[in-house]
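Example 3.2
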Amino acid sequence: MGHTNKKSGKAKQIFRIVLLAGTFISLWFVPWILVKAWILPLPNTVQEQVNQSLSHGFDGVIVYVDEAGKAPAYYAAGYHNKEEKTPANPKALFKIASISKLYVAVAITKLAHEQRLSLDQSLVDYFPELEQRIENANNITVRMLVKHRSGIPNFTDNPKYWENQPNTNIDVLDYALDLPANFQPDQDYGYSNTNYLLLSRIIENVTGKTRQDYFKKEIFTPLELNNTYGSLKEVKNIDNVMSGYYVGLDVDFKTEEQGMIATAEDVGTFLRALNDGTLLNKDEMKIYASLYEFNHGGLAAGYQCLAEYHEDIDAVVVQFMNTTDFEGYQWNLLQITHSRVVKILRKAKDI
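Structure, written as tokens:
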């Protein structure tokens, strides 16, 4: 019996050691930088929160707040350009990446309402040449593209897309062609930049003009968005564009072409108009609501952003951060710090 107790005691001791080791290992992998961002005492003001965000490894931060009944507020901290030690400018131009999908969805909505296109037409109706290059092209509709339910692979998931950066002389659609579908059309959801690349080309196919021309006519001019551009080529002074940095690389991504560019104010003006019905009439709003979301984020090398409308406090919050890592930490920190800005606004409403 004593021998059995010794064996049992030894087994328990080993178990405790393994458990303790496992605990230490799990603690090693805990994303403490995210935990810290969550548990830090909530500041009293948005500017204090913006300043605090720099402690998480960001080079520069911009926040724009539009609360109903108040004048818009602008906040910034860190650097517009860290090499030149230029302070962050709350009215700087910024690469808004996938936030541009909201503008594309609005354009498709307007064209559908005008009956210039049908949401139920297939991809092949617009691009017959893709029938043999994109699986299920005959059965993929415009509606599925907008809703990310096409199953078409995301061209930015193709390693060759990154190997060939910058893709200045390559049609990036090539990175999604001749690949197996991720799923059958309308059988699942799969976020894919390829969907919105194709939608942009459908807009140009239908209107006979550039996507930017249609945006200007239907979105920018009515909303007086004078600081929103389709590409770097349209920007008169490149110095007005905030620099973009990637953790671990001594590179400024500012001069790389990465899509739409805008100020936080312009994005905020657009977002409020999208959410309050100013931009779309009642019938258009019904179509849009069946297709896409009303808030969005964006991520590109050196640039990440989040634009959200919060109905409970009737406020638009746009946040730009010019540091990325593509490992998830910086993006999660953007979401955490953004949510803390919203908490500060809610708290102020309750006082």
